[in-house]
Design brief:
2 helices, 79 residues, elongated, two-stranded antiparallel ribbon, alpha+beta
Amino acid sequence: MAITAKFNLETTQIDIVNAFVYCDLDKVVYIKLPLGFNKGKKDKVLRLRKALYGLQRLLLLWQKNLISSLNELGFKEVL
């Protein structure tokens, strides 16, 4: 925002509400069903196909997804 103000640039702000849930997982992840969902079926698990809030690797996966998308648009990383 400081650069935008200094050079009198126009900017648009967007809020990506569900950005995290669209990230593909890089490993196989299984979760147990919460209490009340597994009526009569002990130890039933589900395999996650996409990232889920609360997953430890969520921010890393989202960052990799964002960098990949920006590179496809022609942006370059500067270290």
